[in-house]
Amino acid sequence: MKRGRTVALLGAALGFAAAMCSPAIQADETTPTRVGQDAVCTRCHDESETKPILAMYQTPHGVTADGRTPSCQSCHGASAGHVAGDTEGKGRPAPDVIFGSKHTPAGYQPSDPLVQTEACLTCHKEGLRTHWSGSQHQLGDVVCSNCHTVHAANDPMLVKILQPEVCFGCHKEQRAQTKHISTHPLDAGKMACSDCHNPHGSSGPKLLVKNTVTETCLTCHAEKRGPFLWEHQPVNEDCTNCHTPHGSNISALLKSRPPFLCDECHDGPHNSQAPYGTAVGGIQGGGALAGGSPNSNAVGRACMNCHVMVHGSNSPTGAFLHH
Amino acid sequence: MHTESKQLTVKAVSLAIRAALLLFVGASPLVQAQALDAENEDVHALIYPLNWLEIGVLNVPTDSPKFGEYNGLYRSGAYLLANFDIRGGDAYRQDGGTTRWQVSGIDLGTTSRNLQAHIAQQGVWNFGVSFDQLRHYTTDGSYQTPFLGSPGDNLFVLPPSFGVINTTTTASGGVITSENRGTQSLTASQQAAFHDENIYSERRNTGFSAGYRMNAQWAVQFDFKRLDQSGAKLIGSGTDAYDLSDAGGFNYRGERIAILMNPTEYKTDTLNLALNWTGRKGFASLGYFGSMFHDDYSGVTWSNPFVTGGTGDQPNPAPGTSPGDAFPLSTMSTPPDNQLHQLNLSGGYLFSPSTKLTGAFSYARNTQDASYDGTYTLVPDTAENLPVNSLDGLVVLTHADLKLTHQAGKALSFAAGLRYNERDNRTASREYTFLDLGGEELTAVNIPMSNRRLQFDMGADYRFGSHQHLHLGYEYDRIHRWCGNDLANNAQGELSDTNAGYYTNASCVQVPKNEENRLVATWRARLGETVDLNAGFTHGRRKAEVNDSFYNPMQANDQGFENFGYLAFFAASRSQNLFKAGVTWQATDQFTLGLNGRRTNDDYDSTLGVQKGHSSSANLDANFSYSETGAVAAYVSWQRRSRDLLSASGRNAVALRDTLWSNNFGDRDHTLGISGTQKALMGGKLDLTEELNYSSSTSRYVTDLVQNINPAVGNSGSSPDIQAKTTQLRFIGAYRLNASSSLLAGYLYQRLKSTDYFYNAYQLGFTPTTLLPTNQQAPNYSVNSVFVAYRYSFR
């Protein structure tokens, strides 16, 4: 604690020093100027806090020479009562803005979500946050600090390999699905949730980064974009007609196993009208033709043994997605 | 929110990354204490980032491409661990500078390596480059093929001595049934031709980004990425069993199947350019997004080992003998080159502090004009009858959205939104005459499909004091589907006598219009200071406008329809009810318990097709921080999914079939995890993390013959379970040797046990299925891995 106090004092000095520096970028009139108010706060709030704060100087919010950089009070409010202390013997009043969804160790209740969010949107209203208002997370009272850790040197939300754990704090079904045998490479840190979703709100469904599901998937899977000579309607409309992107027991991220998956849309053509059930000899699985021989319409890739171009074909002989 | 748990959990397979990042990001006292002895060093540590270099070795004792599917650890042996993260710049000195830079590398000793460099003068400009490699293994090391050729090639031929596979039939007229089909057994020499191939597809993503902020209002951002793909993925293939001795060039021989290495030799260039404006009350962004896809190939060609007709000078060779000059070849297409160019405009305006309007508009042209050359088997009829040599395809994508939000006092808020998406496929339709699998001559019309979707939602939120919140909403969703030319809209095939009268006014889509209305209600409340409750209910009703004259263009002329009353599930009329509820109990500052669940019921109105769908889940989470340096977390997830299907056997489009069968799908998943962390042990020198995850998934299909079905035409019962059980156990420790050095060590145990009837058909010597075997097995592995690394850190 002693060292923490020392650090806090030095942090306060740092705040004053920063305020004295000439900013490389002049603050514009729409953003507040940092005026060395940090010291007012860091005199008491130090590295011994439950959530240490001074490493913030390593973050973009700590580049004091950038005229846009906020002070503590830019986000937490002037908090005059809190700064003045326990003047009425009723305990120190809360700061103007308390972030989070739980009460603080000091017993302060979090501020209204709108107040919290506005503190961030004052500077971060554009870009990825364009569609925040009215978005699923906004309506669910999710606040910025539920996901972002702005006082730490590194915000896990912005580290690809750590980001899914932040999201899984609420999205527990998706957490379980990523443990399935067929997944996107989230667990290996090669993808993050934000590669597909914009948690701040979007113009697409399910907070997707693009306007539609298909447009989002084709960002990486451009080979399936076409337009193909022979199209497949569910592919054009929504990839999730057949795929479940967070994980599946059926490769490749399929909602169900062909031929049964195909049966959900096709009943007339070809062998989609044929029932397939018990294994031949107890081990085949997927069905048999009359007479007992296994049926290639049902085993292995089933329909996709021959109808291989399920995403579309550009061959003049591919009308039935064979080629 | 349980942000604590993310700091406790070690989950990535990539051990080295996780070890490093946990220490780095988790604000560990160990890390924070490094290089800190004096007070000025305390300041130094707060201002300057922790840089680190890590080098070590990781041992994988067994080959397992499935284990190494994404992490690059697919072969047994030792792997170099090499990771680093170095940052600098005058901005850290807090003396007036605003420049920061970062160079980092992760997993450099594997095929999952990542390198990045970034420099920025904050608030003025930024510049970055990146490289990311991902080798995705798709087989479990057991794929075998008799074809000559390597992954990434597009020509797969059989050795001349391979001989024709025994598919002798006894039927006249070439009609094959199960009774007259040959044994299709492979001879000893044919089996000897099978050899192993390791199948993977590799992505190398190289990126470049730059941005410049001209002033407080204007900024421009640019980024470019090139995705290079190589390797192959497995794909089925129906062969053209042609017989040149037949007058038509082809003779029906059934559709024999080989599993091929489909090349993924792709390049995709992606480009983003955006001009951003921010004002006092509004903001806007004008951008361009481009995506250009290129495939090195236009098709894949392979030998047909099933042909029984032989070639000119050696007709009808005996099974197992050479077919003469060479095996006939079959060809299928690979993805065509295509481009997407999109203009985007988005922005928002604050009418007042409580009223905000946001919106976006985008317009895109998606084109494709790759030549048909090399996409089909070259036989006279096809080549001569091509109406054009390329598609000249064009799809115009339009999007627009608006959202208005208004805060009417502290307690009440409103939101209303409108979304419009259109996929207008303006590609021309033409007639294509071709020979399908088996040599049947057919004519089909390409059907460019378009759709337009309009969505509207409005909602109100009301807060009852500070502890209760109610949301009521209404959502409307309408989709139109159409084809944009007369040829596509009248593309019905010839009618057989039994189906006469079915077509009245043919159209290219089965359901031209869907409309759905949804009502949404959610409620949240806080009881006291420690309990949070939430519950929600959504009811949706989707109606389908069905075109009874629908002709499925993907099917042969006399087969291009579904049975009467059968609708594709995603367009069928449906009612949906969704319930969800959750409770979180913050028992103490150290202990949190959460339970939530949801259930969705879908009821379809279709006479035939999917009848019901259901999914449900329950999740229990607990987090306990028993000290400032120690915590444990645990979770359990339970998930169920089911789908009931009713289908008809035999084709009769005119009336509802009375030969019915059902198929029920069930999926059961259980997942649990426990993780813990202990920091600053042994006098502050040792940090430990542990994690255990277990996942069990089982999928099962049950088919029943419901009505009037002769068991001879199909079978019923349960398919074998598709099951996968995964166990992951990890221990990672970091021991501080001195102020700048640490020793990292870890142990990983990961096991997968899976059974899947998918692979039964691929076994050598198994019951003939008309599939050329690959000998692939369901993935199973058990890997014990250890690593040790030295870490040097400095500021």
From TrEMBL, chain A:
Annotated keywords: Signal
Pfam families, per the entry: Paired_CXXCH_1
Signal peptide: 1-27
Single GO term (MF): oxidoreductase activity
Gene3D superfamilies to which the protein is assigned, alphabetical: Cytochrome C3, Flavocytochrome C3, Chain A
Ranges of residues in domain Doubled CXXCH motif: 144-175, 185-225, 232-268
Protein name, UniProt field: Decaheme c-type cytochrome, DmsE family
Classification of source organism: Bacteria, Pseudomonadati, Pseudomonadota, Gammaproteobacteria, Lysobacterales
From TrEMBL, chain B:
InterPro entries: Decahaem-assoc_OM_MtrB/PioB
Keywords linked to the UniProt accession: Signal
SUPFAM superfamilies: Porins (SSF56935)
Cleaved signal peptide residues: 1-33
Ranges where the record places region Disordered: 308-330
Protein name per the record: Decaheme-associated outer membrane protein, MtrB/PioB family
